[in-house]
Q: What sequence folds into this?
């Protein structure tokens, strides 16, 4: 059987069932981060992200922005669990013909994110590779009471996003700011029921929340904050690498957020029972079941 | 300037000086693992290792052994700091044409090491890549009083290895057992002054200890435990990926180890002052300064 037949998520499911975990693991694969016992009041978050030339960035792109992206996508995963990023290590697979100047720019890009979010870059590995490949593993911390997972959305929750959707294909994917500040604001002031970052596309990532929470959702087209750079609604719904956060709040908490006057967060729909599936209400009020598409690696 | 001119270690030195670290980092880049504050009596160890098809393994090799190696080399780094491996995440860059059966074997190899060393495989990332690339990041724990670094060898220390050298090119590099048990035995029973695992070759890795400890060394050819699979002395001295440990003990501790009758550990030489350099005494008693060679990525 070829990998593309099984698909990325089929493969991950296949992985999961073989893996024995001890009691130090609060949450293994299947969320934005692994969650590990750490101290009396904190969990440690641990995750990795690999980016590959020709898939996640083009060879012609600015190495500063490539380095920046490599670290930023891992930071985004920490934000999605309401954590603070702390330490990272970087593995670089470098083509032999790259110049030292190229690596310097790559590193400057990485350090720009590390400095912005006070992350310690504590180690790395350097290999020779035909195409540039960068893997960043990151550790973060989260107050136990503030941890947010994908699997805990509740029927009746309101669904929010942290910003405009659909701008990523126009270079936002190289320049986005991981939503650590927003996620910390939410964790401090609200009971967040579930959260994920948008890497594969709004709809596909919302599906991860719904699948893991055994729930459905209704999304309202008129409420989707479409990026001025998105060509159309489909861009906003399906294009990958927006790196905004999707999160859900109970109706009461949602009301509190809306009344706070904070315009950063946009409500886009609500969680319903599993059997209602994933429905988009268009501008005329018509309900449409949404197809399962979005970025797939395989 | 091309990367090969600067070399891997030049590049790492170049990286280091740009990187700001806070007080939670006991040791950043430059050792087998980063060392982080963790609890009252323990440090956390954190490291990553990337292996690439065509460099670290051949496409024809058994995927079970490739998966096994990917995890084992990270475990070896934890052992080199006298730590216990605890949690790991795996990033896979997979060519599109690989079969599910291939991935299953890869995973089984990874899990064989995870089970053997009671490591929790807690997460991963799956990307599409032209050639197979695997990056494993691992967390470990070490008692603060037992941590061993590269930089703390002392003049007068005796130098030991945990096993035969020079067998790696004959498939040992795919089948080696990381020396966690040996390292734990040493940490429990002796004051180990410095330690490193052999990834680039005995001499080159010994040089890391010497360089960081500002010391020199004398090695005795007749004491080198040459693998029956090594063609000659050069194999034992320079071939990479033996994954034995090199460690140093004070003369007193060395005597204790030798008198213990434990035959696992072989003394091969002693640490001397920096100005004596790195010297090999051959079987006739002649002293030879050793050239700086061994596996280089660039």
A:
């Amino acid at each position: 059987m070829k990998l593309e037949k099984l698909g990325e998520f089929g493969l991950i499911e296949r992985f999961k069932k073989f893996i024995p975990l001890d009691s130090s693991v609060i949450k293994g694969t299947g969320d934005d981060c692994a969650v590990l016992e750490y101290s009396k009041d904190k969990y440690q978050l641990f995750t990795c992200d690999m980016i590959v030339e020709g898939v996640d960035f083009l060879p012609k792109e600015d190495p500063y922005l490539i380095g920046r992206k490599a670290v930023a996508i891992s930071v985004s995963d920490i934000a999605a669990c309401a954590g603070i990023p702390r330490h990272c290590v970087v593995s670089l697979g470098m083509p032999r013909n790259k110049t030292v100047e190229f690596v310097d720019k790559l590193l400057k890009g990485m350090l720009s994110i590390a400095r912005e979010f006070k992350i310690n870059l504590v180690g790395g590995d350097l290999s020779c590779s035909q195409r540039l490949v960068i893997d960043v593993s990151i550790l973060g911390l989260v107050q136990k009471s503030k941890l947010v997972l994908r699997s805990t959305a509740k029927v009746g929750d309101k669904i929010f996003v942290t910003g405009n959707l659909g701008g990523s294909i126009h270079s936002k994917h190289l320049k986005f700011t991981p939503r650590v500040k927003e996620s910390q604001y939410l964790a401090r002031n609200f009971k967040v029921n579930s959260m994920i970052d948008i890497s594969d596309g709004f709809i596909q990532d919302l599906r991860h929340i719904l699948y893991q929470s055994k729930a459905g959702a209704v999304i309202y087209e008129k409420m989707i904050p479409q990026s001025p750079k998105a060509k159309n609604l489909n861009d906003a719904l399906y294009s990958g690498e927006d790196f905004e956060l999707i999160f859900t709040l109970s109706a009461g908490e949602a009301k509190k957020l809306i009344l706070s006057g904070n315009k950063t967060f946009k409500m886009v729909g609500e969680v319903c029972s599993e059997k209602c599936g994933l429905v988009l209400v268009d501008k005329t009020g018509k309900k449409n079941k949404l197809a399962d598409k979005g970025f797939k690696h395989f």
